[in-house]
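Worked example 3 (structure in, sequence out).
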């Protein structure tokens, strides 16, 4: 993948940062996108000349179109796109506000659409490219207090499959990676004590949640490794696939 150009969203922290750094180590030049400008600058400083920060609000299609045009002009043709940016609002459905629901879809679903559309429009004339969307295993099974998040991720996952179907004739592959519980800031906002990680591993019958058969919480690098596989030529005949990386938590559903 050396000297390819990749766009990675949600790159300021967590899985997005891990993907950007892993791509950089593989010789890829990375356009790192996020709303948080300062963490993006810090990320770029870890790999000078390899990672370039592009602060952007993915919820605004005009900004998205503009940043893709800038990246193509400043860095060159985009070969790879990794949609990672996401937001989680916890709450029972009857207590969710309109803003909680709409805000979740604005980033997790609409942002994926805006950016994938903009990048695909550039890739199609070149008849090459690869897109990976990071979803969630919550898109496969119902989760208590996670309806907005699960629904938005399910929509993004199915959108990516539809995108893969439409772009296949142009030689462009589109896949998703669906993590389970992963040690990131998003996951830790759900924990109140060091013992909470073990509770996730053990599962919860009252919460209708299985445990994790492999007996560990994933780290961000586990997800980044799966993303890099799908971007690589080792997966050249894989498209419209959803790769679940959750230690068996959804029992292969």
């Amino acid at each position: 993948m050396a000297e390819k150009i990749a766009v990675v969203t949600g790159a300021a922290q967590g899985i997005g940062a891990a993907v950007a750094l892993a791509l950089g180590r593989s010789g890829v030049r990375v356009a790192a996108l996020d709303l948080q400008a300062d963490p993006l600058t810090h990320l770029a400083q870890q790999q000078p000349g390899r990672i370039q920060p592009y602060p952007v609000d993915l919820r605004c299609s005009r900004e998205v179109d503009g940043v893709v045009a800038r990246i193509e002009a400043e860095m060159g043709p985009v070969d790879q796109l990794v949609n990672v940016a996401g937001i989680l609002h916890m709450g029972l459905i009857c207590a969710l506000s309109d803003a909680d629901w709409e805000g979740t879809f604005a980033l997790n679903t609409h942002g994926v659409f805006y950016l994938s559309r903009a990048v695909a429009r550039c890739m199609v004339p070149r008849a090459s490219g690869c897109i990976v969307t990071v979803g969630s295993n919550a898109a496969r099974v119902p989760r208590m207090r996670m309806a907005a998040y699960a629904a938005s991720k399910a929509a993004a996952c199915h959108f990516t499959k539809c995108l893969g179907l439409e772009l296949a004739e142009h030689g462009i592959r589109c896949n998703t990676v669906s993590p389970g519980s992963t040690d990131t800031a998003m996951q830790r906002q759900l924990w109140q004590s060091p013992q909470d990680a073990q509770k996730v591993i053990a599962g919860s019958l009252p919460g209708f949640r299985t445990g994790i058969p492999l007996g560990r919480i994933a780290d961000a690098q586990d997800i980044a490794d799966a993303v890099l596989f799908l971007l690589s030529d080792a997966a050249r005949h894989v498209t419209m696939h959803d790769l679940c990386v959750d230690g068996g938590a959804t029992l292969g559903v």
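Notes: The longest helix spans residues 98-126. The first strand starts at residue 5 and ends at 9.
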